[in-house]
Design goal:
456 residues; four-stranded antiparallel β-sheet; 13% helix
């Protein structure tokens, strides 16, 4: 009755053989599972034997050293023990060690975090990309003889001649040349269309030229009595400032071009800048003053046409630049007796910050893509300094000119800056970097309620 057929035994053997797992695999599975955990049997592989030896020896030392210590020393010892993790009391381990950290583990991050990780600090070259000879530059702080058009043409006045330089092919052409009784050329300024250019002269005249046709369109005269050292455009209105302390708005579309005059300065006007909205004009003069004017006040007969008279500078103010990301923020730079860069809220007329640049400030340019400001300086280093706004920490200093940097101009994409100095050279610097193609530029829209003072 206990007899089993051979076929049945072979069947059972096949089943057992098929379900049997090798001994090495069984041990590996057991090690990788929680089966080896026992609350009475320590896990030898997870015990820190160095820590156990330290605990045993330290107890012996404590028994031998029975000298009393002060309360402060005892507190220090306890604090030190906590930092060094000596206060651990458990020596035996009943669990496996935590698995080692794998560098290949993928950590999910938000798109914003990924952009921050990808973004790197850009390289700012300490040497210019190109150096051009500019013989005949007049070393005069109060003149503005350099500008860069939106059509990518650089205009430079050398004595009695205005030249146009094309950065794309390096070609140079002569736009105009005048006699000594009219010249020298004291200021140049491109119109917003990138084709027409205004040129101011020593004899108080202003000429409008077509750069493509190399043709004189008209001459504006009868307004100023002395040389015109500064120019700026506000759409079809050309604003000129002269040695006669007058600021004149000229509508170039009509015959009687003089449509308004600002009176306030008592010395030569050497800096003029319209804000992006075209509602406010900033002017700097040799009287150490900065005025903020409203476009609506040009025809006013009021004794005070200006919105604000800013008196904090102690030297001539030529360097003026409106902030591209905050429409009511103006930066101004003082001459050799001042050496300061100041920031103004033009709605309230308050000075937000003042930084001693260490030398004469001749020109200022904002980076249109980042919160940075570039300043050009005179004696004694003749350098260009890049500042981080608003901390005003120096990011870079660019050296190369051997005389004071009189003027700067910016390329249409905002990446490159050309500087002109009394050493009769033009230097091109890739200081602001190539802007991202997918990064939209700030549109020049007027700020809502810009005439209402704001609390800062």
């Amino acid at each position: 009755m206990w007899a089993v057929s051979e076929s049945c035994l072979m069947d059972v053997g096949r089943r057992i053989k098929g379900s049997r797992i090798p001994l090495s695999d069984q041990m590996l599975q057991k090690l990788n599972s929680r089966e080896n955990l026992d609350r009475f049997i320590p896990n030898r592989s997870a015990i820190d034997f160095d820590f156990a030896r330290c605990m045993l020896t330290s107890k012996k030392i404590e028994k031998e050293n029975t000298d009393p210590c002060s309360p402060s020393k005892e507190v220090y010892r306890k604090h030190l023990a906590e930092i060094l993790n000596v206060n651990r009391t458990r020596i035996l381990a009943y669990r496996n060690k935590a698995p080692p950290f794998s560098k290949n583990i993928h950590r999910s991050s938000s798109p914003i975090q990924e952009k921050k990780l990808v973004k790197r600090r850009r390289h700012i070259s300490q040497s210019p990309e190109r150096i051009l000879d500019a013989p005949g530059i007049i070393d005069d702080f109060y003149m503005n003889f350099l500008d860069w058009s939106c059509s990518n043409l650089v205009a430079i006045a050398l004595g009695n001649t205005v030249y146009l330089w094309d950065p794309t092919n390096g070609s140079t052409s002569e736009l105009l040349s005048i006699d000594d009784d009219i010249g020298p050329v004291t200021s140049v300024r491109w119109a917003p269309d990138g084709r027409h250019i205004a040129v101011g002269f020593n004899n108080s005249h202003v000429q409008l030229w077509d750069s493509l046709a190399t043709r004189l369109l008209r001459t504006l005269q009868g307004g100023h009595r002395l040389r015109v050292g500064s120019l700026d455009w506000n759409n079809h209105i050309l604003t000129s400032g002269g040695l006669d302390c007058m600021i004149i708005n000229n509508d170039v579309r009509i015959r009687s071009h003089n449509i308004g005059t600002y009176m306030g300065h008592n010395r030569e006007i050497c800096g003029l800048k319209w804000c992006s909205s075209g509602l406010q004009l900033a002017s700097g003069g040799n009287d150490n003053l900065v005025y903020i004017w409203s476009i609506s006040m040009a025809n006013s007969n009021s004794s005070n046409q200006w919105l604000h008279c800013l008196e904090d500078h102690s030297s001539a103010v030529k360097a003026l630049s409106w902030c591209p990301f905050q429409s009511n923020l103006l930066a101004s730079g003082g001459g050799v007796g001042d050496q300061c860069i100041k920031f103004w809220n033009t709605n309230t007329g308050t000075c937000l910050n003042s930084v001693n640049a260490g030398s004469q400030v001749c020109s200022l340019l904002w980076n249109p893509n980042e919160r940075e400001l570039l300043s050009a300086h005179g004696f004694s280093e003749h350098q260009l300094t890049l500042w981080k706004y608003s901390s005003m920490v120096k990011i870079a200093e660019l050296y190369g000119h051997t005389s004071r940097v009189l003027s700067m101009a910016q390329s249409p994409d905002g990446s490159t800056v050309v500087s002109a100095a009394g050493d009769e050279t033009l230097r091109l610097w890739n200081v602001f970097g190539t802007p991202l193609s997918n990064k939209p530029r700030n549109a020049s829209k007027p700020e809502p309620f810009s005439n209402v003072p704001r609390i800062r």
